[in-house]
Amino acid sequence: MCKKNAYITTYSKIHFTPCCPNPEDINIQDIAHSLSLLCRGNGHYKTFHSVAQHSINCCNEAKARGLSNKIQLGCLLHDATEAYLSDITRPVKQFLKKYIEMENTLFDSILQKFHMLPMTQQEYNAIFEIDDHILYFEFLHFMGEKINIKNPYLKSNPDFLQKSFEEAEHCFLQLYDALFNESL
Q1: Is the pLDDT score of 184 beyond 60?
Q2: Among residues 33, 149, 15, 142, which one has the least CA distance to residue 90?
Q3: Distance of CA 166 to CAs 17, 87, 142, Å?
Q4: Cis peptide preceding 118, ω within 30 of 0
Q5: How many helices (H) does the chain have, and how many strands (E)?
Q6: Which is nearest to 61 in space by CA: 138, 166, 150, 118?
Q7: Of 35, 77, 38, 28, whose CA–CA distance to 52 is shortest?
Q8: Are 80 and 110 in contact (CB under 8 A)?
Q9: pLDDT (tens digit, 9 = 90+) per residue, 8-50?
Q10: Annotation: CATH topology of 8-183
Q11: Which are the contacts of 154, defined by CB distance < 8 A and separation ≥ 6?
């Protein structure tokens, strides 16, 4: 199924096959760099807001809610697949069964790489609830629009200021180092 030449070349020069991910080829620097350059909202926000910044806000929200380091790290990495697959907007993604399967396989490989398996359904739910709640407040801030998210709330104060990609990448890696080292 996987072709040896069906790879992307990552920031660190790894030849990565997104359709057949090898956890050994997953690199946190590649993830941080890529996510710091990808814009949220498919580029439709009023100003640039990176996926790395969104992930940092999700991680900080998990911490503010008193959730475990594992869930905080899960929040930081919940969009890591986008470093290898890019992203597709929710209204379209729901119709792309094969893409969703690839994304789920890749996410499991990422969790494996960073020693986060097994993960309970409750832990997954906490991560993706925070993702939705941050998304709600992003849309309110950047678009002036309320989106259909059930009972959104925040315990943190998300940072929606525009950051350079270098700053977002650095902050992402600092959070990762702190959380990963505490989890070991």
Answers
A1: no
A2: 149
A3: 26, 21, 21
A4: yes
A5: 8, 2
A6: 138
A7: 35
A8: yes
A9: 999 999 999 999 999 999 999 999 999 999 999 999 999 999 9
A10: Hypothetical protein af1432 (1.10.3210)
A11: 61, 64, 133, 134, 137
Structure tokens at 112: 């494996």
- C-alpha 139/C-alpha 45 separation (Å) is 8
Identify which has the larger pLDDT, 164 or 181. Answer: 164
Q: Would you call 72 helix, strand, or coil by DSSP?
A: helix
CB 61 within 8 A of CB 105: no
Q: Which two tokens stand for residue 134?
A: 């941050």
The beta strands (E) that lie in 34-78 are given as none
Q: How confident is the model at residue 5 (pLDDT cuts 50, 70, 90)?
A: confident
The answer to whether the CB of 150 falls within 8 A of the CB of 158 is no
Residue 60 CA to residue 31 CA, distance in Å, equals 18
110's tokens: 């990422």
How is the chain split into domains, by residue range?
Answer: 8-183
**Nearest by Cα to 35 from 48, 18, 20, 17:** 48
Instruction: Give the tens place of pLDDT for each residue, 41-78.
Output: 999 999 999 999 999 999 999 999 999 999 999 999 99
Looking at the DSSP assignment, which residues form a beta bridge with residue 39?
A: 50
Q: CA distances (Å), 136 to each of 49, 71, 97, 155, 183, in order?
A: 14, 20, 25, 14, 29
